[in-house]
């Protein structure tokens, strides 16, 4: 006959076994990273190399399975049907890959089910009459032509909100084509700024990358803080993020620039982010691989 202690120990083992088995059998969440078609010169807008690099940095995380799509919107978009979250890092504006055909409708249906969504760099821009309403619903804001601006500058990111995406991120500054003055939801409803800095008058006075500007409303806002990354938790249960950096591929070498994006990718999957953020290493050689075949 088993003693009380032996009986309790055996019962605990039996009870724990199914739980351990279910945990081991749990299917990883699916994150799809979409890299856009080739654009710009060597080292800029390296969308395909960028998503492959981010996938490499997340490879050790057992909670998610990352799938990479290169050269624009997937030819067979059924790959998105069971995605927990999707990131699009591509050219935007009128040529945005999510605006072609019925793609906007497709993504909208996925988002309505709670699929996480993130847009990076140029992909945060859509025409104000096509896609902008959806983008504000999905991620909280978007770039609007001649309302927003896109200078090359080095914002000083000194302080961060108490938000999981900021876990382990330390103050940093890096030169990139950081867009600002986004067209956010009214009163920033439900939007949490993640990367915020104050452009000086020289930055506000231009030139911007295109059109060169300056715009009076940007100049008149001198001294105001601007948001270059933001996050939102939607009513459908999904999460959205916008990130305006990412023009210069070599910037992925910067630990904090990279970490805040990797953290965001876990966050849109609703995966807990480590206290110190996602740990990863990127070398000079990593930056040189998978580049698009561009002419110098």
Oligomer: single chain
Q: Are there runs of 5+ residues with pLDDT below 50, and where?
A: 1-24
- Shape, per Cα inertia axes: globular
The major pleated sheet works out as: 7 strands, mixed
pLDDT averaged over residues: 92
Name of the level-1 CATH class of the domain at 27-145 and 227-288: Alpha Beta
What's the count of strands?
Answer: 13
* Percentage beta strand: 15-25%
The CATH superfamily of the domain at 27-145 and 227-288 turns out to be Class I glutamine amidotransferase (GATase) domain
Structural class: alpha/beta
SSE arrangement, N to C = HEHEEHEHEEEEEEEHHEEHH
Radius of gyration: 21 Å
Give an account of the 3D structure.
26% of the residues lie in helices and 19% in strands. The protein contains eight helices and 13 strands. Strands 2-1-3-4-13-12-11 form a seven-stranded mixed beta sheet, with helices on one face. Strands 5-10 form a two-stranded antiparallel sheet. A two-stranded antiparallel sheet has the order 6-9. α3 links the parallel β3 and β4. It starts with a helix and ends in an 8-residue tail after the last helix.
């Amino acid at each position: 006959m088993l003693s009380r202690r032996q009986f309790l120990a055996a019962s605990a083992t039996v009870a724990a076994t199914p739980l351990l088995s279910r945990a081991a059998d749990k299917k990883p969440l699916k994150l799809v990273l979409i890299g856009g078609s080739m654009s710009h010169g060597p080292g800029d807008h390296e969308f395909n190399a960028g998503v492959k690099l981010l996938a490499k940095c997340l490879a050790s995380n057992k909670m998610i399975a990352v799938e990479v799509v290169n050269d624009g919107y997937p030819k067979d978009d059924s790959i998105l049907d069971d995605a927990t979250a999707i990131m699009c890092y591509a050219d935007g504006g009128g040529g945005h890959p999510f605006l072609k055909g019925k793609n906007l409708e497709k993504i909208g249906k996925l988002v309505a089910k709670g699929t996480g969504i993130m847009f990076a760099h140029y992909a945060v821009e859509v025409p104000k009459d096509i896609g902008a309403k959806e983008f504000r619903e999905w991620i909280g804001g978007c770039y609007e032509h001649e309302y927003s601006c896109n200078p090359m500058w080095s914002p000083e990111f000194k302080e961060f909100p108490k938000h999981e995406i900021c876990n382990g991120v330390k103050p940093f500054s890096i030169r990139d084509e950081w867009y600002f003055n986004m067209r956010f939801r009214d009163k920033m409803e439900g939007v949490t700024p993640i990367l915020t800095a104050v452009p000086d008058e020289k930055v506000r006075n231009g030139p911007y990358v295109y059109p060169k500007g300056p715009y009076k409303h940007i100049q008149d806002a001198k001294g105001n803080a601007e948001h270059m990354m933001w996050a939102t938790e939607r009513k459908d249960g999904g999460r959205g993020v916008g990130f305006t950096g990412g023009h210069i591929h070599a910037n992925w070498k910067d630990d904090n620039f990279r970490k805040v994006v990797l953290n965001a990718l876990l966050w849109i999957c609703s995966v807990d982010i480590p206290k110190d953020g996602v740990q990863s290493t990127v070398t000079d050689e990593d930056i040189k691989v998978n580049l698009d075949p561009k002419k110098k």
